[in-house]
Design brief:
The structure is a single chain. By secondary structure, the protein is α+β, with helices and mostly antiparallel strands. The protein folds into 2 domains: 176 residues, Jelly Rolls (Sandwich), CATH 2.60.120.620; 46 residues. Strands 1, 2, 4, 5, 6, 10, 14 and 17 form an 8-stranded antiparallel beta sheet that branches. Strand 8 and strand 9 form a beta hairpin. The longest helix is centred in the C-terminal third of the chain and has 21 residues. The protein is globular and about 60 Å long. Bound molecules: nickel (II) ion (NI). Nickel (II) ion binds next to loops.
Length: 231
């Protein structure tokens, strides 16, 4: 399941992030790449220990916590602190799969990367190329979003970033360990939750059959969550 989450950051927050990142220290993106990804990764990154990354990362996490769509789609257990990268002058990240297990530099805690996230910070009219291409069983999806919007996709997917041929594409990227390990299970729960919310918001919400169905479906949702959740 690949979904987008709009307006994780407000336009004001996007501007703040862009200003802080413009004056932050950038290093070669290969510092955090695994052996295979090093071969194909050509970009720049803010070091994980950078104060700007920490501050802006917390702003992003707060934005996600306010998003019912993110919570419903990701069912997050742990979120890796957001990192930041930039692509310019033809830079690209060739086809790869993200590392399965990430370790936090601060606490040593391990995070299984079930979901990958990219939050776009540069408006799409300011650069050419830079599409995130995600391969799944239905083919390739090309993603280029408004500044402040985020895409969430299974970390099991092969993906790449097309060369940026004009301008500078700055984004945040990070991973989520979900309470629900299987993408297919997560997708079912997301759909079920959406149906329950739709019933609750309908004109017929107070009618006896809809009320009864809502209670029953909510029970099914929680009982599936109970069966599948890992913590
Ligand atoms: Ni990747």
């Amino acid at each position: 399941m690949l979904i987008t989450i709009e307006k994780v950051l407000t336009p004001g927050q996007v501007n703040e992030a862009r200003q802080k990142l413009a004056s932050a220290e950038w290093v070669d993106g290969r510092v955090t790449a695994g052996y295979q990804a090093q071969e194909v990764k050509r970009n720049a990154q803010i070091p994980e220990s950078s104060p700007a990354a920490k501050e802006l990362g917390e702003m992003i996490l707060a934005g996600l916590a306010r998003s019912p769509r993110f919570m419903s789609a990701a069912l997050p257990l742990r979120v890796f602190p957001p990192m930041f990268n930039s692509y310019a002058g033809g830079q690209t990240f060739g086809t790869h799969v993200d590392t399965a297990i990430r370790q936090l530099a601060t606490t040593g805690q391990r995070i299984r990367t079930d979901l990958s996230a990219t939050l776009f910070l540069t408006p799409p009219n300011e650069y050419d190329g830079g599409e995130l291409i995600v391969e799944d069983s239905y083919g390739e999806k090309s993603v280029k979003l408004a500044a402040g919007d985020m895409v969430l996709y299974p970390a099991t997917s092969l993906h790449r970033v097309e060369p940026v041929t004009r301008g500078n594409r700055v984004s945040s990227f990070f991973w989520i360990q979900s309470m629900i390990r299987q993408d297919a299970h997560r997708a079912l729960l997301f759909e079920l939750d959406a149906s329950i919310q739709r019933l609750a918001g309908s004109d017929l919400a107070q009618s006896a059959p809809v009320k009864q169905s809502s209670v029953q479906l909510t029970g099914v949702y929680h009982n599936l969550l109970r069966q599948w959740a890992e913590m």
